[in-house]
Amino acid sequence: MQHFWKQLAWTLGASVVLCALLMGLGVWMTPPWKVEPLDEHISLSSSNTAIEAKGIHTTTEGKYKVRETHRTLTVSGGRQVDAILREPIGAPGKLPAVQFIHGAGTGDATTNSDIAHALASAGIVTLVQSKRLDDYSMLHRDYEASATDYLTSINTLRSLPNVDANKVGIYAESEGTWITTIITKRDPSIAFTVLVSAPVFSARQQMAVGATEYLHIIGAPEGVEGIVPKMLSLNPGMLGLEYASFNAADYRNTLTMPLLVVYGTLDRSMPVEQGAQQLLQDANSVGNTNTMVRYYPTNHQIRLGSSLSKPGLPLPDQYTHDIESWVNTVAAGATAGDWTTPKIAGSQPFQQFAVPTDIRPGLITSFNVLVTMFVFIVLMWVVTVVLCIASHLGRKKRAHVSTDANGRTLMHRFTKQTQTLIVTNIVLAPIITLGFLAYFVFTAVSALNLQDHATALSIGWVGLRVATVISVALLCWLWVRMFFFYGPGRFDADDPEPEARMARGHCAIVACLSLCVLVALALGVFFNLVS
């Protein structure tokens, strides 16, 4: 019994030391930034989103019937894409025109057909084209090539006989607003821009806010929210994802034309307040004061009925009227001093978290490192299992028996207690890993669907952290038995005759298992399971 309590004391001491070392590693792995609450908020003077200018009367929606023409456009690289041109029938003179630019997740020419049709019925020619997908995927997106494609379509609009080439502008959504700023840098003659649900900042910065907001809504533990800066700081490495580092700030100073910024107040993925403030600031920095912001009680798609983006949801009643009024008014020559309605109006927005400015990584700088660690864990786990099987089969074939100087019989083998510790460590490592992966998937699904699972997430997180601490204790217990009580040249005092001791081959098993568990714990530190 005294032998047991001595082992227990050593195990507790070693566990405390290892936990302290892991916590220190966690501090080293933590980036020098975190997502903080937003302090400065926008205050609106009016909830009325109507847009009017003195002395300018615009065409009302529905005045003209609309002709739809399906076309095939040749874009960069000789590729062809489908497009739908909508024109007001019977509208006199040269008309303003709008090129639609898709956001992420949309790409068909039929997208936003209700908005494009409504604008055309108010005397505005619209063109919506399909997005090229040969250079666009989850892992790779060429924004420069996309800008070239859309510029080709813009020039197509300018060449139409019923379009005023000097009054062709852009309506862009979400990711498409980044592409728009590339276009405006290449072609300063763009007449106007409507930026809807604009991320404004780089993908990493914007996603830091969006991911934290979603996790906060579903009740994720603080430790889970703390993973966001670590993941978004990483170089994507083998994944590609170059677009995640797209530096939007290099292009925002090109917004020298009349600018309308639109956000939905239920959009949790975008910096709805900071984004508008930044765009106004950037426009003003290049002398553009002809800017306007409108907020609607809608989701990311500017649709009613759900805070999530779903097909078939309706637009706010006033939305297309506001867009048409603004486009027709700026096409008529309205300047910054002509507006009779507020520059910023609509539903009161609230952005809970601020966009981080410093997104430097901690100790781990690349996604490749995480992958390498995971592969190493799997490799060491497999080697350990193979060595254990080989050791078991070898014992069946030969006795592994020797005698010491006193003539005592020595059995070179693991004792039952050590065997139990080894098997438990071998089993626990994949259980924790698979458990974390399942927890991660559950969290991601809950966040994407904005489902509040605070209780389940809390219980699961506590369970993973407790399992990790148990893994630390079991590994330390194994080390104590190996290095202080039972190892090469040492006898197991708790084991009955014949007395047992370990050979060097047994040390190889424990070494591989220790490396497997230690790297797994280091990976757990990165994901805040030890902190």
TrEMBL record:
InterPro entries: AB_hydrolase_Est10, AB_hydrolase_fold, BAAT_C. Residues 153-302 form the BAAT/Acyl-CoA thioester hydrolase C-terminal domain. The chain crosses the membrane at residues 369-390, 421-442, 462-486, 507-530. Pfam families: BAAT_C. GO terms for molecular function: carboxylic ester hydrolase activity. Keywords: Membrane, Transmembrane, Transmembrane helix. PANTHER family: ESTERASE ESTD. This is Cytochrome C. It comes from Bifidobacterium pseudolongum PV8-2.
